[in-house]
Each structure stands twice: as structure tokens, then as C-alpha cells.
Write a structure and sequence with these properties.
A five-stranded mixed β-sheet has the order 16-17-18-20-19. By secondary structure, it is an alpha+beta fold. The two termini are 41 Å apart.
Length: 750
């Protein structure tokens, strides 16, 4: 057969047939077999129809039909029977149809001579339709011809005779009925696209043992009480002062963030996403509560109740420690044993940007840009289009680099460009940065996004801290070899208002500040950026921290908990994420990432280190006259008030576990005590500096040495909720645990 002046080769005779399972096109869980079978069937069907009274023709281009390049490339990889085989354009070797495998072809009429020749327009999705055979004569290549040689005319006949072993066998004019019967048989068997094949394979690889059961919804009896622990707030966005292009840019950024949220759900709990979407049209009280709590947690597991399941179909399944980053049911022991037996795969399996799937008896690492390409391609397009709408050339460059990074998993250059932004009016966090979801290895990153508008007045106040970062680093209680210099490194700080969040910044713990990127290479070369969300900070202090402090702390110290004191602590917390060692100390000089060495407890260790080192920095700044000494106790009170808030989020969560460990250690050192008569807690401010200093040294040493066993033992000892604190927190059940934000934007989740 020929099309657009090029010769087609049936699959059975292809030379170097195109790959159908290219990762960049079909996704990580795509098996080539369904597509290969469908390709063979399509060739068989076309060849059969070519012998009948029907023939192939190309539908005319539909105005406005402009698929993206990925769609065209994917179609070409899946339908080689319809796209010209350039390599065989000049071949004159006989070609056999899979249906008539024992037949030969006459020299007088090339096989497929009656296929209509029309130009292939790649800007429109190619459709194949069947048209009556009795149409004007069509052009074809004579046997032995090429695309550049003249074509001959061939008239159509009602019957066609195909030579076979020296005799002619007539093919009936109604043989198209047989072809249609083949189509009806094949459609239920063979997926019609690589995308459907990918999802079939993905669902088998990632779903839980009971996910295929259609069972009654099982809900935790205290679900209503758990939902009530989150205070609904609405984050509004005033666009009245923006230009038309800025409004369009914001829409593009929010749309991209909505697509990112689709990926996060697939990393956290794909079955939870299915349940969430299935309840969209149900408006009974139970369904609404389930949907709301699924949204808050981003999964079926309760973050403020030690990740216990709160909903399920038929039964409630425990949380897999690796979420959907790893095959269902795999344990750390299983994983370590496999890596020990396959050391050549360790780098890929430990890569922060890969999903681990089963490949028969083996494990296979699939890059994020392959696993989530369905969403990453339109996300990247949104960012590129947004870059054309901003008047800020530096921000436009960053958006273009970040769009490229999404499709390659290489965020280094875009992170450098992000740090180079100077006082941008708009900013975004848009990458897989945090490892909070990975309780198996502590290395797999989840996607998070925030669209932000700069608060100029508040941002200018942060300049006070920036110039002291090198001195704060040098003052830490570690050998100089473990403390890379911060001199000359960038440390931009911004106070912003968040107008939309997605991924790990939307579900679960509502961050009021962040220190990014987390790549230690960036920290060594350039530093990091500190982001502070003022609107979320105000909501947390007013609705959670102050009311809770009034219930747990003695009145005199509860009155010292203020928004300004909490903000000072949070600022130093985020600065301290960038302080301390960047890599594990190694005798061979190799640079081992701290997270890889510490394992699943790394997130809790790093959050606790930032808390404690941050408070040590507060004391240093007060001693050096940067912060007034009479403000020191107010910041200590704000730190304790925030710690009590954090442990209510559950000590299974990284921040909660870290804060519980800190409170236990400070209590052991006498810096915190409980009044037995009132049940309230009181700080001994005179003992705080020494207790903080000793704890900071311990946590920094654990990171510098990469002591996994020591870290696990430390948290096992101190990250334990004492009964009296459990009782005290139970009396605060009417105080929200956190806020539950809604926005003016509502991208579609799918």
C-alpha cells in the first residue's frame, strides 16, 4: 500500500519497526504488547479492506484541529500501517498481508494500488475513514517506482484476483463484512491507544489488594469530629490592579497548578483519588464529609491520627509506607534485599524523581517525566504560555526553564534562575521538592505548587536577617569542615500572599513558610530562597496558635504569644533549613546526601533541626544586638505555642514528630515544666539557651555523620506523647488543628 507517495510495509515484513513503548510517549507502566497486537490487527484490517469494495481515504482537515506534537508523535508510533515507511520507499520486494500470508502479488497490479493518495497534513489529527470503492480513479506507484517518479492510473474493478501458488483466487466484493466482524472481535481485546494501555498496566501495578472490589463504603465513626478540627478559610484574590495580560498569566499558572495536583494524588493515593471523584455527585452528609477529609489529607489516611485509615471500600486499608512511589506491599527489608542483589540499579531506584514499579520478578525505576507525562506536557505548555504574558524577562526565563525541567526531571538550571529573581511581583513554587510522603526510603519527592503575589512592605523587613547568615552558619557547634561557607551565597527572602496552592502545599499541613530548593548542590553554589506566606500566617496565629496557647500555657506566658513573636521564630526556622552540613561527612570524601543516609526519619530530623537551630540563632542575634533582648522571651513563647500546635497534627507527621521530640527533650532538661495543680505548662526562660544549644549540637551531629541508627533511636526515645499532654490536648478539641483553605480558583481534578 502507499500513502502520500510512500510505500507501506505490513508489520510482518517491516525492517526495524518503530518502537511502540518509548517512555517519553507511552508512560512507565505501558506494555508494548497491546499496541503491537493492535498494530498487527490494524494492518490486517487495512489489507483486508483493500481487497474489498471499500478502500481507505483520508478525512479532510477540520478547521481549528491542531493537536500537540506529542499526540502526533504518539499516533505515528502506534499506527505505522498508516504512516509511510520511509526506509522502504524504494523497495520492490513483495509484501505479504498477514491475512493472505501465502499469497503472492502480480506484476501487473501492485498490492494496495487502489488506496487513495491525499497529502498528509500533520497539523490535524489524522483520521481514517472508509469510502465506497466506486470513486474516481486514484494515483499509485507502479511496482518499482519511488515517490519522485511518475505515477500511473489504475481503474477499479468489481472483482480482484490475487495470484496464489500459480492459481487465481477471487476475493468476494463483500469481504468487508468479514473485516468488520474482525473489528468487533478485536476492539474489546486490544486497547486502542498507548494511553489506555498505560492506565491498565498502571492500575495493576499500583492498586491495593482490595481496590478492585465493589463494596460498601466503610467510614470511621469519628469522621465528623475529625473534619471539624480544621477551620475553613477562604483565600480571596483581588485582581483589580492587574493588567489584562497579568490576569491571563495568573490563569495559566493556576491551570498548571491544577494539573500538578492530579499528579500529587497519583503519588499519594490513586485509590483515594478514584473514591474522591466517585463521590462528586453525591450530596448526602456522609459523602460530603468523606470528600472533604480526602481533600484535606490528600489520601485515605488521617494525618492527625497517626495515618490511620478513615475510609475504604469494604474495609479500611493501612497506609503503605511508600505510598504510590513503590509497588504495593513492598517493605524496607524487601527493598534493601533487592538493592543488595542488584547494586547496579541502586542509583535509579533511589533517584528522588523516579517511581519504582515491578517488572516481572524485578524492580524498575521509571522517571517522573515518563510516569506523569499525561499531565506534565500540558503543564509545561501552560508555563511557556504564561512566560509570554509577563513583562518581567527574568520571570519569563525562569518559567521557560521550569517548563523544560518538568519534561526532563532536571531542575538545576531552573532552580538557579529562580534564585536569581529579584523582587518579582509574581512568583511560584512549582516542582517536586519535599519527601514527606516517602516513609519507606525518605528520598522520593512529591509535587507541590503555590501561586504567589509579593508583599513589598513586609518583604523589606527581612533585609535585617540576610546579612547575618554567614555569621550564623559559622557560629554553629560543628567542625568547620562540616559547615560550608555561606559568604557570597544568595539568600533571597520574600513575604508573599498565596492565591492558590496544589499538591503537597495544599493537602495536609498548611505551610506558612518554606526554604527551597532542597538540592544540596544549589545550597553549596548559590544558597536558597525563603518564602513567607503572610495571609496563611495570619490565619494560623489568629485561629489556632493564640487560642491554643491560652488553653495550655500559664496566663502570663500565653499573653506573650503574638503574631510578631511567631513570625520571628518562623523566619529563623526557614533560614536554618539552609544552615548546617550539606552532605554527610565521609572518610572517602564522597558526597552522600543526608536524606539518603538518614532514611525515613530524615524529614522529622530536618524539621527539628530547623526549629532548634533557629532558636539558637535567635539567641545569637539577641546577644549581638540585632534583636532587642527584651524580645527574646516573646520569641521563646511563640516557639512553644507553635510547637503545641504542631504536635496536634500527629506525631506520625514529620513536623509533629520533630516538635514532640523537642518538647520532650526540653522538659527533660528542665526548660519546660507542668504545673500539677493547674495542668498548664510553663517555660523556664533561663534554662532555654543551654538546653537549645545542646539539642542543636546533637541534631547537627546526626546529620553531619549520617547516623541512621542514632536518629531512629533518638526519635524512638523522645518522640513520644506523654499521657498528661494527651489529656491536656483533648481538652482543646474545640480549637482548630489547622486551617482548610478554599480559593477563588477551582481547576478541574481528574
Amino acid at each position: 500500500m502507499t500513502l502520500r507517495g510512500r510505500r507501506f510495509t505490513p508489520v510482518s515484513q517491516e525492517v526495524n519497526p518503530p518502537r511502540l513503548n518509548r517512555p517519553s510517549e507511552a508512560g512507565p507502566h505501558f506494555s508494548p504488547k497491546p499496541a503491537v497486537h493492535f498494530r498487527r490487527f490494524a494492518t490486517l484490517l487495512i489489507d483486508t479492506l483493500s481487497q474489498s469494495k471499500w478502500h481507505l481515504s483520508r478525512r479532510k482537515q477540520t478547521p481549528g484541529c491542531r493537536p500537540d506534537r506529542h499526540t502526533s508523535a504518539l499516533l505515528e508510533s502506534e499506527a505505522p500501517s498508516v504512516i509511510a515507511n520511509r526506509e522502504n520507499a524504494s523497495s520492490s520486494a513483495p509484501r505479504k498481508s498477514p491475512l493472505f500470508r501465502d499469497m503472492r502479488f502480480s506484476n501487473s497490479e501492485p498490492f494496495g494500488a487502489h488506496v487513495t493518495q491525499r497529502p498528509l497534513n500533520r497539523s490535524c489529527f489524522p483520521y481514517l475513514i472508509f469510502t465506497p470503492r466506486y470513486s474516481p480513479p486514484t494515483t499509485h506507484l507502479a511496482k518499482g517506482g519511488t515517490a519522485n517518479q511518475p505515477c500511473t492510473r489504475v481503474s477499479h474493478r468489481k472483482k480482484r484476483y490475487i495470484p496464489n501458488q500459480g492459481r487465481n483466487i477471487p476475493v468476494h466484493r463483500n469481504s468487508w463484512i468479514f473485516a468488520l466482524l474482525l473489528l468487533l472481535i478485536a476492539v474489546p481485546v486490544y486497547p486502542v491507544s498507548a494511553q489506555s494501555a498505560k492506565h491498565m498496566k498502571h492500575s495493576v501495578a499500583m492498586k491495593s489488594p482490595t481496590s478492585s472490589k465493589s463494596s460498601k463504603l466503610v467510614v470511621a465513626p469519628d469522621l465528623a469530629q475529625q473534619v471539624a478540627k480544621f477551620k475553613p478559610i477562604h483565600i480571596s484574590f483581588d485582581a483589580s490592579g492587574l493588567t489584562a495580560n497579568e490576569k491571563k498569566m495568573v490563569d495559566k499558572l493556576v491551570d498548571a497548578a491544577g494539573l500538578l495536583d492530579c499528579i500529587y494524588w497519583r503519588q499519594s493515593d490513586p485509590e483515594g483519588l478514584k473514591l474522591y471523584l466517585s463521590l462528586a455527585d453525591k450530596h448526602d452528609r456522609e459523602s460530603e464529609l468523606v470528600r472533604e477529609y480526602l481533600k484535606i489529607n490528600g489520601s485515605r489516611w488521617d494525618l492527625i491520627d497517626d495515618n490511620k485509615p478513615f475510609v475504604g471500600l469494604g474495609s479500611m486499608e493501612p497506609m503503605p509506607p511508600g505510598h504510590a512511589f513503590f509497588p504495593w506491599g513492598i517493605t524496607r527489608q524487601d527493598f534493601d534485599a533487592y538493592v543488595a542483589a542488584h547494586p547496579d540499579q541502586k542509583a535509579a531506584l533511589y533517584d528522588p524523581h523516579t517511581v519504582v514499579v515491578r517488572d516481572g520478578e524485578n524492580l524498575k525505576a521509571v522517571p517522573y517525566h515518563t510516569a506523569y507525562r499525561e499531565f506534565l506536557v500540558p503543564m509545561a505548555r501552560d508555563l511557556r504560555e504564561a512566560s509570554e504574558l509577563t513583562p518581567d524577562p527574568a520571570f519569563a526565563k525562569f518559567l521557560q526553564l521550569r517548563a523544560h525541567a518538568l519534561l526532563t526531571d532536571d531542575y538545576f538550571q531552573s532552580d538557579i534562575a529562580w534564585l536569581a529573581l529579584r523582587n518579582p511581583k509574581f512568583d511560584i513554587i512549582f516542582a517536586p521538592y519535599e519527601v514527606y510522603l516517602d516513609d519507606l526510603l525518605g528520598v522520593k519527592t512529591s509535587y507541590g505548587a503555590s501561586v504567589m503575589v509579593r508583599n513589598d512592605a513586609e518583604s523589606k523587613k527581612l533585609a535585617l536577617y540576610q546579612k547575618y547568615i554567614p555569621q550564623l552558619q559559622a557560629s554553629l557547634p560543628l567542625p568547620a569542615a562540616d559547615l560550608p561557607s555561606k559568604r557570597g551565597k544568595q539568600s533571597p527572602m520574600e513575604v508573599v500572599d498565596g492565591i492558590y496552592r496544589a499538591g503537597d502545599l495544599l493537602h495536609g499541613y498548611q505551610a506558612v513558610a518554606d526554604n527551597l530548593p532542597n538540592d544540596p548542590r544549589i545550597h553549596v553554589l548559590k544558597g536558597s530562597k525563603k518564602i513567607f506566606w503572610k495571609n496563611f500566617m495570619d490565619a494560623r496565629v489568629d485561629n489556632v496558635i493564640v487560642p491554643l496557647a491560652q488553653r495550655l500555657m500559664v496566663p502570663g506566658q500565653a499573653a506573650m504569644v503574638t503574631g510578631d513573636g511567631v513570625m520571628q521564630f518562623v523566619i529563623l526556622h526557614e533560614i536554618s533549613h539552609g544552615l548546617g552540613p550539606s552532605y554527610v561527612r565521609g572518610s572517602s570524601g564522597t558526597k552522600v546526601p543526608i536524606g539518603e543516609a538518614i532514611g525515613p526519619e530524615y524529614s522529622a530530623l530536618e524539621e527539628a533541626k530547623a526549629d532548634v537551630v533557629g532558636m539558637r540563632c535567635v539567641y545569637w542575634l539577641a546577644q549581638h544586638g540585632v534583636i532587642p533582648k527584651d524580645k527574646l522571651n516573646e520569641i521563646y513563647a511563640g516557639y512553644l505555642g507553635d510547637a503545641y500546635r504542631t504536635i496536634r497534627f500527629g506525631i506520625a507527621e514529620a513536623h509533629g514528630k520533630g516538635s514532640m521530640m523537642e518538647l520532650s527533650y526540653l522538659t527533660e532538661q528542665g526548660a519546660i515544666r507542668r504545673d500539677a495543680s493547674s495542668g498548664l505548662y510553663e517555660a523556664d526562660f533561663s534554662k532555654m539557651p543551654s538546653a537549645i544549644d545542646s539539642l542543636a549540637q546533637k541534631l547537627l551531629t546526626l546529620e553531619a555523620t549520617g547516623d541512621r541508627a542514632g536518629t531512629e533511636a533518638w526519635f524512638k526515645k523522645y518522640a513520644v506523647m506523654p499521657p498528661d499532654l494527651t489529656e491536656a490536648l483533648a481538652k482543646c478539641s474545640d480549637v482548630p488543628v489547622d486551617v482548610d483553605p478554599t480559593f477563588d480558583f477551582n481547576p478541574v481534578l481528574r
